[in-house]
Design a protein that fits this description.
Layout: E1 2-7, E2 15-20, E3 23-27, H1 32-38, H2 40-43, E4 49-54, E5 59-61, E6 71-75, H3 79-89, E7 100-104, E8 109-110, E9 116-118, E10 126-127, E11 130-136, H4 145-148, E12 152-159, E13 162-163, H5 164-169, E14 183-191, H6 192-195, H7 210-217, E15 228-230, E16 252-257, E17 261-269
Parallel strand pairs: 6-15, 8-14, 9-17
Antiparallel strand pairs: 1-2, 1-5, 1-14, 2-3, 3-4, 6-7, 10-13, 11-12, 11-15, 12-14, 16-17
Bound molecules: magnesium ion (MG).
Magnesium ion (MG) binds near residues 73, 131 and 160.
Length: about 270
């Protein structure tokens, strides 16, 4: 199943919808986060539909517009990105032995078609990172890699927009990754039964699989329903170009993942 969070023209109210072909059917659960937290027995009940609209006529929002916690992110989780980053920073390429976790603030989340606000007083180097987003369905602690994928509700796309100058100036990446609007997400959440094996999709050479990421993350630390994990970017970011090429005002950033769709966000000065 494919879920969206949407609003009708002229309204800001967020609604939960189920997508089939080019139609969206509004569902009775108050939000995607509520549906996830109701538990697995509710996930496959279609519930009452209270209306339908064409997908092209609604405004899509991020699937979880305001996550309860920070988005957990993976740094350097693709060999190709390890190589391109090492070249730019002039250090030896070395794959990490354990996942590099950092987070993005929930206030950074924005919709799949919304502008990426560029505040020139905060950054001069806005870059993009296309990532597979994992939404946890069943929480837990000390989850083994063999059980890990059964804890996943579904998958989405995250653009881990990054202010490179801020990211490197502050040493810890949190601030440079958390500017307002720097986490476009969506356009849909594809449930894990429909999405299938996350390792078989498009991008390969991921260092830590989704199952391993969940095993590492939940070791001694509870993860909860509705938690979001951005699993890292492959090579191809602006930082990795020679010379580095950052986003400019008016640029349209399209982030696409097989089986989910694409995010289309335009950089807009604010
Ligand atoms: Mg990233």
């Amino acid at each position: 199943m494919k879920y969206v969070t949407f609003s009708l023209p002229g309204e800001s109210t967020a609604r939960l919808g189920l997508v089939r072909d080019d139609m969206v059917t509004e569902m009775s659960a108050p939000s995607l986060l509520d549906l996830i937290r109701f538990g697995p027995e509710r996930w496959h009940q279609r519930g009452e539909a209270s209306g339908a609209a064409r997908l092209s006529e609604v405004r899509l929002q991020a699937p979880i517009p305001r996550p309860l916690k920070n988005i957990v992110c993976l740094g350097l989780n693709y060999m190709s990105h390890v190589r391109e980053t090492s070249q730019v920073l002039q250090r030896q390429a070395k794959n990490p032995d354990v996942p590099i976790f950092f987070t993005k603030a929930p206030t950074a989340v924005t919709g799949p078609c919304d502008p990426i606000p560029w505040d020139r007083a905060a950054t001069e180097q806005v870059d993009y990172e296309v990532e597979l987003g994992v939404i946890i369905g069943r929480g837990g602690k000390n989850i083994s890699r063999t059980d890990a994928l059964a804890h996943v509700f579904g998958y989405t796309i995250v653009n881990d927009v990054s202010a490179r100058d801020v990211q490197y100036a502050h040493k810890q990446w949190f601030k440079g990754k958390s500017l307002d609007g720097f986490c476009p997400m969506g356009p849909v959440v594809v449930t894990q039964d429909e999405f299938g094996d996350p390792q078989s999709k498009g991008i390969s050479l991921r260092i830590f699989s989704v199952a391993l990421i969940i095993e590492f993350l939940s070791k001694g630390m509870t993860i909860e329903a509705g938690d979001i994990i951005a699993t890292g970017t492959p090579a191809g970011v602006g930082l990795g170009r020679t010379p580095p090429e950052y986003l400019k005002e008016g640029d349209l950033v399209e982030a696409e993942i097989e089986g989910i769709g694409s995010l289309r966000n335009r950089v807009t000065a604010c």
